[in-house]
Design goal:
The chain is an alpha/beta fold. A hairpin with a 2-residue loop joins strand 12 and strand 13. It is globular and about 60 Å long. The C terminus is likely disordered.
Length: 464
């Protein structure tokens, strides 16, 4: 029986992967038609919709962990995955089974075939994945679905939920410019498309992005909650807004996380702990607190104790994740410029003065030169590798950029080989930082986890 279901799952995944031939075909018409044929399951769910350039996955994980701690059956739909497609669909931290994935795809196939036969464009791979999510969480009767935007906002396939409980736009920076726009204002306008009439929005946006988001809230009659440091930004936007203020309270590598205080909408929460590193995660945590408080204002029971316990139990791997200690090895999916800035700042915060061996691999549509300029000057040596993706492009150009800042730059196409070589270069008191595309970081994590499971450091004993 296991062999049959394993085959069925592989066949289902092959079918799904073949849908990538339809590309990134934006628009909501196809998924709306598909969901209509399925009975519009998305309208039967209580949704928190989370978008933004960086931090939306971390915020999703935090909010979901708090709601689970409060006793609610909580679903999450996120993308991309690290190691297995089933990671995208979780209930209370438990991934969907392979059998269920195969069954859902089998049930969607007749709808997809009928759409094409009737003259509709074929839905894309992500549209089918999103439709599966709505159907799965509806069938499972979750109390909440914490829904991460795939790309952008306005025309992302998750944006078919007409009335979420709360929306979030974590921040806006330059990313996916080929699809979303060439300026912060253009990108923010696309991301603001998830703001719904009368639905409260939580955001930590700044500058032009905040102006765009605030204007959209005003036009939609949507209350806005601004997440900012306790010093405040003095924002005088076009609508009144409430603020949630945060203060970092210390912690770091040795503690496996950090503490913060949040002055929320309802009360002050002192010494909250999150098992995630980086100043940016403090902002994400404060945003998660704001979401929880807005849900409480809507009548949901979420005890303060659940907030503390849920944040402390948050799991979101490959984001400033320490996976080895001699040498220290950090994984971080810093796939754009703002992510690279946060990573560089974290290295200074937690490992000042420590020598770094940098392993990096990025997709061809990313701001490679700006990311390298942020990270390479901190490194003693750099190993450039190729992400396992058709979008890797001319991956070796990254090495040319790195050589502007570091004399010793190596190229190694194999990610496992690059990880092992970097470990052979690093001394026990140094730091190996592996970053870039999540595709690459995920493959590196598999190598390191396998080495840790076997009780030896990957690459131990290799010669440089």
């Amino acid at each position: 029986m296991f062999e049959v279901t394993a085959v069925q799952y592989e066949e289902a995944m092959t079918y799904l992967q073949n849908l990538t031939r339809f590309g990134m075909n934006f628009g909501l018409g196809r998924i709306k038609e598909l969901l209509r044929r399925m009975g519009d399951p998305q309208e039967k769910l209580k949704v928190v919709h989370i978008g933004g350039t960086n931090g939306k996955g971390s915020t999703t994980a935090m909010v979901a962990s708090v709601l689970t701690a409060a006793g609610y059956r909580t679903g999450t739909f996120t993308s991309p995955h690290l190691h297995a497609y089933t990671e995208r669909y979780q209930i209370d931290g438990v991934q969907i089974s392979r059998e269920r994935v195969a069954a859902l795809i089998d049930r969607l196939k007749p709808h997809l075939d009928a759409m094409v036969a009737q003259g509709f464009e074929h839905p894309t791979e992500f549209e089918v994945s999103t439709a599966m999510a709505f159907q799965y969480f509806y069938e499972e009767g979750v109390d909440f679905l914490i829904l991460e935007v795939g790309l952008g906002g306005a025309i992302d396939s998750t944006n078919v939920v007409s009335r979420p409980l709360v929306t979030v736009i974590t921040n806006v920076s330059m990313d996916h410019m080929d699809y979303l726009g060439r300026t912060i204002r253009e990108i923010a306008t696309v991301k603001a498309g998830i703001i719904k009439p009368g639905v409260p929005l939580v955001t930590a946006c700044r500058g032009e992005a905040l102006e765009v988001v605030a204007r959209s809230c005003r036009n939609n009659g949507s209350p806005m909650v601004l997440v900012e440091s306790s010093g405040g930004s003095g924002f005088k936007g076009c609508i009144p807004c409430r603020a949630v203020l945060w203060e970092a309270a210390g912690g770091g590598f040795e503690q496996g996380g950090q503490y913060l205080t949040v002055h929320g909408l309802r009360r002050t929460y002192r010494d909250l702990f999150i098992p995630l590193l980086g100043r940016h995660q403090v902002v994400n945590a404060a945003g998660a607190v704001a979401v929880v408080e807005l849900l409480v204002e809507q009548g949901f029971s979420i005890p303060q104790e659940a907030l503390y316990r849920g944040l402390a139990a948050t799991c979101w791997p490959a984001r400033l994740e320490v996976v080895m200690e001699r040498p220290v090895v950090i994984l971080d999916g810093a796939h754009n410029y703002d992510g690279a800035r946060s990573l560089a700042r974290a290295l200074e915060d937690y490992f000042p003065g420590r020598e770094v061996v940098l392993v990096i691999g990025m997709l061809g549509d990313k701001e490679r030169s700006r990311v390298v300029a942020e990270l390479a000057p901190r490194a003693r040596e750099v190993v450039v590798t190729r992400p396992n993706s058709p979008r890797a492009g001319d991956w070796q150009r990254l090495a040319e950029e790195a050589r502007k800042y570091v004399p010793r730059v190596h190229t190694m196409e194999s990610v496992p080989g690059a990880v092992e070589y970097a470990l052979s270069l690093a001394r026990p008191d140094e730091l190996v930082c592996i970053t870039g595309s999540l595709y690459m970081v995920a493959e590196a994590r598999e190598v390191l986890m396998a080495g840790r499971k076997n009780g030896v450091a990957a690459g131990a004993g290799m010669q440089g």
